[in-house]
Write a structure and sequence with these properties.
single chain, alpha/beta, Nucleotidyltransferase, domain 5, 3 domains, five-stranded mixed beta sheet, two-stranded antiparallel sheet, 18 helices, about 10% strand
Amino acid sequence: MIFVGIDWSEVHHDVCVLDERGGVLGRRRVSDGVAGVAELHALVAEHAQDPGEVAVGIELDRGLLVGALVAVGYEVYAVNPLAAARYRERHGVSGAKSDRGDAQVLADLVRTDRHHHRRVAGDSDLVEAVKVLARAHQSAIWSRQRELNRLRSVLRDYYPAALAAFGNDLASRDAMAILALAPTPELGRRLSLAKIAAALARGGRHRNLDARAAQIQTALRSEQLRAPDRLSDAYGVVARSAVEVITSLTREIAALEEALGEGFDEHPDAEIVRSLPGLGTVLGARVLGEFGDDRTRFATPQSRKNFAGSAPVTRASGRSFVVVARHARPRRLADALEQWAFCSLTTSSGARSYYDQLRARHKSHRQALRQLANRWVGILHACLERHQLYDEHLAWSHRAATAA
């Protein structure tokens, strides 16, 4: 075996090759791109004939470079940058750091400790595409929420009547339609019922049109504190801009969701994932994309739970023993699992019963959801490993028997 460490950057990568005893066989700085990858392969080929004899450490788990390394057959280990930093401290306390040195640290790490790290999974192109779309869809939703928070803050400073009209429904098509038409309090007070109803209709409302228009008119004409006209006009320009951004994001979210659904439906595991209570197209695609579809990636349900960060960790020292939630976990996957657990409460009697038992044991709502999510990850693993659809009785029969 030979061991390769790659300290990557946007423009070039530092490469270090070690033998089994830790001796340096070669170093090189290669460019990013086809020519650089060719140089890297040439350096490796000088010391190994079989790609299976090459283990690579790199602080990256995706991208064109990682894809090229996996495709040729190398064992590629994605090392968390924090783990690499701690490993560097094992070899020196001076605080010195260089790209050349980091490449050697990564090579030495996979030489001695690769059994403690996870290989980059050989996921299919389809599930990688689903993950890309799912992440883009979620990022767009987060971006829209940030814009909505900014808009709410702006309206609070000069247009409280708009907040009175739409309250917590600021993201609705009704709110966007009216604010685009009347971004200032003065314009809002002048709106007639006919104009409000027409704007709501253009926004997509078809039911309770007149009643909703009357409610909005009453709120916009209510007595509120007023900002100076010049300041109000300036805020109106800002609000109109925010409405345009939010409307555009909403349109793109819908387009991404459609593309995500099409890609998810093509995957052979989609039917299994969608059979679990609480998982629809969007949440199911997020969960499948983040876990991947490489069957060799998770040997046991516990390894899948550890990857997801849903399994708690134990801190024991002397007489101290405490079990706490994991804080270092994939953010996107953790968010999807928590939403999944919440949605399953109304669609699975077993999940509801388990949640109620946890609450009866004085667990908080968030703690109970995390524990329920951890249980769902184990059930998902069993369904995928056995290639069978979810069965409510089979999934919760053990807990039902224990409770009895």
